[in-house]
Structure formats: structure tokens, C-alpha cells
Amino acid sequence: MTIEATGHRNARPSEWQAWQDSWDRQQEWYLPDREERFRVMLDMVEALVGTAPRVLDLACGTGSISDRVLKRFPKAETTGVDLDPALLTIARGHFEDEPRATFVTADLTDPAWPDRLPHRSYDAVLTATALHWLRTDALSALYGRLAGVVREGGVFMNADHMPDETTPRIDEAAGAFDRARREAAKEAGAQDWVDWWQRVADDERLAGAAAERFGIFGNPIEGDHSDGEVQSVAWHVRTLREHGFAEAKAVWCAPADALVLGLR
Questions:
Q1: Contacts for 94-99 with beta carbons within 8 Å, 24 or more apart?
Q2: Average pLDDT, the chain
Q3: Which residues of the chain are modeled with pLDDT < 50?
């Protein structure tokens, strides 16, 4: 029996909802404007591909984007793809009774990962705060493959860290403000990345998947992170255009983050 199946059998829907909620709160500790970027993302989906989209939730984690897509668009369907077995266990448990949502295990650095998808093309491919785990050359290659996954007239959107090296004083002030905000929230009991993963590892239903995850990515409790790289908005726009997207631009921004949209 798979790790996912074992976890699903032993957990009630309310428990998966609790994990989904705790993931959202942990992410919001880092990104207080997280819901705003999701709102703009879904507004652009509706504006460009309508209210019944087929959506690929790229590097989906626990399925935060899928959850918001399906709540806003009753006729939507989503495919979540990720490599993290612990986050996918939570996603599959949370959406177990949702026939509009499916999840696929795949490594986005594998050139053949699109072959694992249930559909050849999608109206929208959406991702948030995930692709900075990739190095620049790997992300460029991924953008090239996505040009073959997004249908003509469809959209790709990436909300992530996108620094601007031309504004160092603004960035320094914004960074100091954000660190102070996080410290105050932490003192009030907010969970950070390490705290959240410690809870996952301590949960008997998720411990096996967490151990598998740590074997793939390293143990966040011990301070791991990828050796990924971040790029500017201009880089994302230029690279999407080079890989076959007809138009590309930022449609939302914050001091350190932005949401870039590519239209096929």
C-alpha cells in the first residue's frame, strides 16, 4: 500500500483540511499578500480563458491554487503536479472526494514530465512561490516545455520572488520592514517553514512521506534549502517570449515579488 493510501485511510476529511489550513497560514507568514496574488491570478484566468478552465497547478504543493480555482470556478478541473511526497499526501487527502481534481507525481527537471499528465494541453498553467527552487538554466528549459503544454490562446502565470537590482534602498527598507513583521508574528505564535515541517515529521500519518521527502530534498528541520536562483521580471518576460509565448508582462507586483503572465 502506498504512503498516500495509508494516510488517507487513517485521516478524516477535517484533518486534511486542518493540514491545508496550516500550510496556508505558514505560507502567509512569509507572504502576507498571498491571497492578493491568487486573486489577480484567477482574475486573469477568467479574463483570458473563461470560467470553465482546465488548469495545471504546477509545483502544486498541498494544492492551494487548485483549491482556489475549484471554489471560484465550479466548472473548472485541475491537475496538480509535484515531486514532494509529503505535500502530495496532504493534497490527495484533502481532495479525495473532489472528482474535478487530480494529482501527478513528477520531477519538473525531467524533460519527459509532461507525458505523465492526463491531458495534452491546458487552458492555464499556474504556479506560485515554487520555481525559485530551480536554477536559471533549468527554469528556462521548463518554460520551453510549458510552451507545449499551454494551448494556443492559453495562459501561464508564475508568482514568485523577482528582485530588481536597480532599487537597492527600496529593497533594503522593504526587507527590514518584512523581517520585523515576521518576528512579531513569530512571537505571537506563527509557524515558520521549519516549525511546520517538524509537525509533519511528528505526525504518524505523514512521517513516512516526510522521510521520503527529506531523502529527495533534504531535511528542512536541519536548515536545508535548494540552490535555486531568482530572476528579474524582465528575465521572465524575455524568456517566455523567447520560448514561444506571444505576449508576456507582469500583472501584479510587490516590493520583492511579482506575478508574470505569458499568453500563448
A1: 94/13, 94/16, 94/17, 94/19, 94/20, 94/62, 94/63, 94/67, 95/63, 95/66, 95/67, 96/8, 96/13, 96/16, 97/13, 98/70
A2: 93
A3: 1-7, 9
